Each structure stands twice: as C-alpha cells, then as structure tokens.
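User: Watch each token:
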Amino acid sequence: MNIVEIIPKDNYTLYIRAEDGTAGLFDVKPYLESEVFAPLKDRTEFERIHNGKYFIEWDCGADLSADTIQARWKIMPMGPAQQNDPADSANASPLS
C-alpha cells in the first residue's frame, strides 16, 4: 500500500487514503501505552506526523508500516462527499 494522505482526527484516529483511492480510519489508541508511542498522548505531538509513503512516522520516533495500517484499519465506504474531496469531509489539512 502506498499512502498518499494522512489526516489526524479526534480520539487518536488517523484518516488515511491509499494511492488506489481506498480510504479508512486507523485507531492509534491501542498503541499509546507502549513507551515509543506514549508521547503521542500529547495532541500536538500526535499531529506532527510524516508520510513516508510506505510508513508513517512521528517526530518522537514512533512509526507504523503500511502493512500494519492495512491489516488494522477500518475501510470507509466511498460516499459522494469523499469522491469529490475526502479532505473536506475530514475538516483538516491533508498531510502528504
């Protein structure tokens, strides 16, 4: 999977869109108790995310591979609003 868009959402969730147009939500909450992900409990740190195309990484050093994301995300059905511009429905600037 090639990641083309990441948008941090409320409740430690990421909106992620893949190159093939598939989009979904990935819940980061289960990872927050591990030492490397703990800094992400600070919302400012959580939003400092970088797109490596085949992985995502935060300034604190935490990262997730595209394979992990693909195995655990909840794919969103493509609705009319998402067909036009999924970033509009996410109420945030895309990170790519």
Remarks:
- Confidence is low (pLDDT under 50) at residues 88-93.
- Residues 22 and 75 are 7 Å apart (CA to CA).
